Amino acid sequence: MTIKEIQDAIVEDFSMFDDWMDRYAMLIEIGKECPLIDDKYRDDKHLINGCQSRVWLSAEMKDGKVYFAADSDAVITKGIIYLLIKVFSGQTPSDILDSDLGFLDKIGLKEHLSPTRSNGLLSMLKQMMLYAEAFKLQEDKK
Amino acid sequence: MTIKEIQDAIVEDFSMFDDWMDRYAMLIEIGKECPLIDDKYRDDKHLINGCQSRVWLSAEMKDGKVYFAADSDAVITKGIIYLLIKVFSGQTPSDILDSDLGFLDKIGLKEHLSPTRSNGLLSMLKQMMLYAEAFKLQEDKK
Amino acid sequence: MDSTYINEIRRQFPILNQQVYGKPLVYLDNAATTQKPLCVIDRERDYYLHENCNIHRGVHYLSQMATEAYENARRTVAAFIHAAAPHDIVFTRGTTESLNLLASSLGQLLIEENDKVLISAMEHHSNLVPWQQMLRQKKGQLLVCPMDDNGVLDLQRYETLLDEKPRIVSIAHISNTLGTINPIKEMIGMAHKHGIPVIVDGAQSIAHHYIDVQSLDCDFFVFSGHKMYAPMGIGGLYGKSDWLEKMPPYQFGGEMVDQVSFEATTFNKLPFKFEAGTPNVGAALGLESAVRFIESLDRNQIEAYESALLQRAVEQLSEIEGLRFIGQAAKRSGLVSFVIDGIHPYDLGTIIDKMGVAVRTGHHCAEPVMTRFGIPGTVRASFALYNTMEEVDVFVKAVKKAAAMLR
Amino acid sequence: MDSTYINEIRRQFPILNQQVYGKPLVYLDNAATTQKPLCVIDRERDYYLHENCNIHRGVHYLSQMATEAYENARRTVAAFIHAAAPHDIVFTRGTTESLNLLASSLGQLLIEENDKVLISAMEHHSNLVPWQQMLRQKKGQLLVCPMDDNGVLDLQRYETLLDEKPRIVSIAHISNTLGTINPIKEMIGMAHKHGIPVIVDGAQSIAHHYIDVQSLDCDFFVFSGHKMYAPMGIGGLYGKSDWLEKMPPYQFGGEMVDQVSFEATTFNKLPFKFEAGTPNVGAALGLESAVRFIESLDRNQIEAYESALLQRAVEQLSEIEGLRFIGQAAKRSGLVSFVIDGIHPYDLGTIIDKMGVAVRTGHHCAEPVMTRFGIPGTVRASFALYNTMEEVDVFVKAVKKAAAMLR
Ligand SMILES: Cc1ncc(COP(=O)(O)O)c(C=O)c1O
Ligand SMILES: Cc1ncc(COP(=O)(O)O)c(C=O)c1O
Question: Which of A76, A78, A118, A119 is the best residue to mutate to test the C interface, defined by the most C CB atoms within 10 Å of its own CB?
Fold first, then answer.
């Protein structure tokens, strides 16, 4: 699936719920159930300090595609991380760099990516883009 | 004349004029015409720095009475100094310390004695009172 | 206390009468900043509509009037905390600036190499980092008075730490994280026996408790206007004049100088020596108005009422399974901090925000307290005189609902 | 410029529409502080009525909104002076604080023993005393670029002083006493050839002239909100990020830290590193509103109009016998300073105040300028966009009348 298709699917999943409570309940479920990162990555090297919640992120390149893993100590943050990983993991660096994050707005979660929220999510997203860019440069060199 | 009597006379002089222009004109005349202090006192030792205008003050005690001399580089300040000297010079330390400065209010000049005016007048007045107090202590000791 | 009285007060705070996400706002973030009554908001507005002017040294009417208004505000604040004289009050931007001023200026006066400063384990960063950084430069040492698991300072350790001869003691009156009311009068007395001056960080006490700096006998008392119903951008530093006289100025320029040449500068007298640059006259008048607002109330009753709010919150929260209070001193004030097993404070804060309840989550600028209790942060609800018992109920209900969702 | 346009602008400043001593107020003390338009006054009020909250790190709605509003204000100010990025703008209390921050922080970074700092002979105390005191501690030396009798800096001497390798140059864009517009772009270029960073004190220029810090290529630019139609208590420090990154923090506590323990502290990124304590959000929003107000005007026309006001004042004052202008640079802006033979500025200011005319008298916090010209002070009339030609006439008439009384 393309990034766009995955995003559309997420928006559709969430659109089943009218009110925020149900949407957050779903996010929390997602956040709780997904072991997202190997314990060996939960270290200072992979830590993004968001002051309110902490985020760990790792990335690797396989067959021209980027695979992210990430985690957080806060479950809402973790739920959003899961959505982002779902969207970006297994995509090419170029597709990641060209993508649009409008879907978070559509499901009412955009505020969590505000630079003022200090939950580490925005820094994580920036870091993901940096990885994609670095991998792209590597590719181009070959 | 007592301090009170002198003050009343000043108030009467000023009450001839209805508007501030004439009162200030009179004050300026007074300020201009009175050489108030001997040049030898116009030195740093006798200087009260008022930031906007400078004031020099000297005091001596003769026959139980205090004689002040003072001066300023600004003529309005000098005019007010003249009034104060007229009121206080030649009075006993106790009378000076007990006196009331309401007459300045009555002639519309009270604002010049505001601590915020930084023309040196208030500091001068405080200094005059300190002199009076010091002289009084001297007297009492005898 | 009569709820009509509280509702009357509440009406003076228009911001409280609004909805967020379609729910009535329940504002329980008062330790971060309080809301402002109309009289304060209007005082600042009136100043700009009719009186605004740069002050000191201006001979014209507006400048004279504004100068007098500003100096009157100083007198009002001085009287409010029972300072010996108006010039013992220096207007600053707030607690943080006051403490930085002290770390720099009192630091220059008192701290030599290897000297020590004593603070407590529950200080706000603003009463920790300035000392730490100053001491680093001077190769000195920061002493920290520990606390027990309830968030109560260990006065025996305090005594032994005083024996190490710190040159300055700086202690919060009330902890912004734990709510602990420290026994500062006693602590000041103990320090004075060793001849050590004491700074009291009154950021969390001034809006809620009667302050008499002379009876406390503290050497310095610092506070922020915005935490006592006044506008942002203004606060105070009270100091005994003996100290203030001896201390070197902190910032330079403007009214704080006496005479200036390229070779040398002499400084103005108190309090101007410490007020560099154009003062924030509008905010100082707002602060004066906030003081008058507080003084217009029955302060004993308000204190009792605020304590009842806290009491109710504590009681109701206690029912929640897995909830642990952070800070359980017998003498507490103004706020309650807690964590719930298995629930991250950020998540809890995010969910109850959606229910209209504004609390603070995180380390509350007191990371060492979090380290001490081994937690990433707390949920903190803090109260002011306009909060109602019903709001406490809404808050607790919201916490319960959120906990259910998150567990 | 059309006087209807000016009157329309003027109507937005309610304070101007008042009487003092029964005479219409003629406010010509704008270099000390400008008045505020309604939009600015109301912005701050609205903030307290609907949005007030402590910012950063709060997850709840009000805190999020206030944080965004504050950071938007930063963006607006950055765009206004053409900063490369919003984080190049640090909010301070004003020019004096910005300069103290620089003297301390840049001083720590750059000044070693015996090092030098170069300023000019026409600096405000706020751009003199902080450097002087910092250099005293570091046993360094203050270099002063002299000016001629017209109040024009001597660029040849400037060049030779640069050869003495000062580590920092700090220069007023426009003198608050003489009105001289200094050729800062040229001076910055000259300093940069020697690899020396340049600070521009823009207190007197920002309200009146188009500022592009990138085209000027200054390393720092400092200013006060209250001199550009914004509230008191807010101002700015622009710095190239390269410098700001390297500089140590100035004050400690609050949002400026990253992680804190009793042993050590790491600091937050730009611009927060330099913003200790609760920021003055309300005033920052007022500043943003003032920027929008200025941007809403036809700035070229306003500049021309303000220059015409000055021109008219200068022409008419020239007719007065014994009047001597202090500051007669070809490039001048915003204000006129003068003395009259045999008349003390204090007396003149006092008398024309009674006629409703507000000017400033004294040394204008630039005593060395007074020393240079051998005078106790000047009378200074300074203009803003809401002043009218008629006000200039009233002012000059008042001066003539007062001079007649005083002579
Ligand atoms: C105990 C304490 N000290 C200092 C501060 C810092 O106050 P401000 O941010 O107003 O400077 C606070 C505010 O959070 C506080 O609660
Ligand atoms: C050139 C100049 N620099 C600095 C200042 C100080 O500004 P503030 O008092 O707003 O800090 C002023 C204001 O008088 C000024 O005109």
Answer: A76
